[in-house]
Amino acid sequence: CLSKIPQRTLKDANDRIIGGGDKLKGAIRRMILAYQKKPKDAFDQWKKYLELVRNKELIDQNKAQKLGALLHRIPQRTMNDAMNRIIGGGDKLKGAMRRIMLKV
Predict the structure, then answer these.
(1) Tell me, what's the pLDDT at 82?
(2) CB-based burial, 18-52: b 16+ in 10 Å, e otherwise
(3) CA distances (Å), 20 to each of 26, 33, 55, in order?
(4) I need a labelling partner for 6 at 20 to 30 A (CA). Which of 20, 72, 78, 81 fits?
(5) What is the DSSP code (8-state) at residue 21?
(6) Is 99 helix (H, G, I), strand (E, B) or coil?
(7) Checking phi first, is residue 89 left (phi over 0); if not, alpha (psi -120 to 50) or beta?
(8) HSE on the CB side for 60, CA within 13 Å?
(9) Would you write out the chain's pLDDT as a tens digit for each of its 104 residues?
(10) Is 42 strand, coil or helix?
(11) C-alpha distance across the termini of the chain, in Å
(12) Which phi and psi angles does 24 have, rounded to 5°?
C-alpha cells in the first residue's frame, strides 16, 4: 500500500496539470482521453495479432498442449532427481539404485 504513494502523487499532479489546477477536471479529461484512445488501441492490437498470425509466431492448440504436458513433467523430473540425490547422499546414481532396490 505504501509503495503506491509515489504513483498516487504523480497521478494527482498530472490530473492537476491537465485540469488547469482542478483535480476533478483533470480526472475527467483523463477519462475522456482514455475513452477516445480505445478504438485506436483496439485497432493496433488487432493489427499486431494479424502480423503474428502471418509470421506464424502464435502457437496453435496442438503445440500448446504438447508444451503444457512437457512443462507438467518438469516438476516431477526435478522431484525425482532431488529424491535420488537425498537417498544417495548426494550421488544421483546411488539414490536411483537404492530406490529400485526398495521397490523390489
Answers:
(1) 87
(2) bbeeeeeebbeeeeeeeeeeeeeeeeeeeeeeeee
(3) 7, 16, 47
(4) 20
(5) T
(6) helix
(7) left
(8) 4
(9) 667 778 888 888 988 998 898 999 999 999 999 999 999 999 999 999 888 878 877 777 777 888 888 877 778 888 888 888 999 888 999 999 998 888 88
(10) helix
(11) 56
(12) -65, -45
Instruction: State phi, psi for 42 to the nearest 5 degrees.
Output: -65, -45
Residue type, 23: K
The neighbour count for residue 95, using CB atoms within 10 Å, is 20
Q: Are 72 and 81 in contact (CB under 8 A)?
A: no
Phi, psi angles (nearest 5°) of residue 94: -60, -40
**Which of 37, 13, 35 is closest to 26 using CA atoms?**
13
